[in-house]
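Let us practice reading a record.
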Amino acid sequence: MSTFVIFDLEFTSWPGALEQNWSAPGQLREIVQIGALRLREDYSVVEEYEALVRPVINPQLSTYFTELTGISQRAVDQYGLSPAVALGDFLGFCQGQSVLSYGNDMVVLGENMGWVRARGEEIKHSFLAARFLNIQPWLNTIAPVTAPANVGRLWQVLGLPKPASGREHSALFDCHSFAAAIRHLCNAGATLPEGCLYRG
């Protein structure tokens, strides 16, 4: 049976950063947490991936970020992987798969890969060994009620049971919310966009 991956990122942020598109000096979208699920064609979960990542340019997390995500500085300092290792591990998890996001998280992924390479570090797997797709437009078209919702609230706006323990703005919880929305819509007759079951 074919599988595909859905993923979500949490990255450094500050008050007003989203509205200003991270344009203030020194405000970069450094990945702090990666969450991903591998799903079967029947939308059941095969495997989970989760990693904390230590930001390099802004190693001290903002209070805004820690309150938003629940990710503490201590946890990142103690358990965070280097960006090169985390990105390599995640891309290894994605190899030969379609990798779906709710939004353009693949752009943030690309930015972080660029910074790693600019520091002369190696990432052990290729971005090109997977097919990244943003299916937010599809999902919002099928279920317009989701349009104003972030990925961690999809389950809520669709009136679904809470899909996992945890909270919104935790990458793995947000993946479970995303998976619940996909499962619900497809079981109701929707069809995922072409390419979502890509085999690399």
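A brief commentary: Residues 20 and 55 are 21 Å apart (CA to CA).
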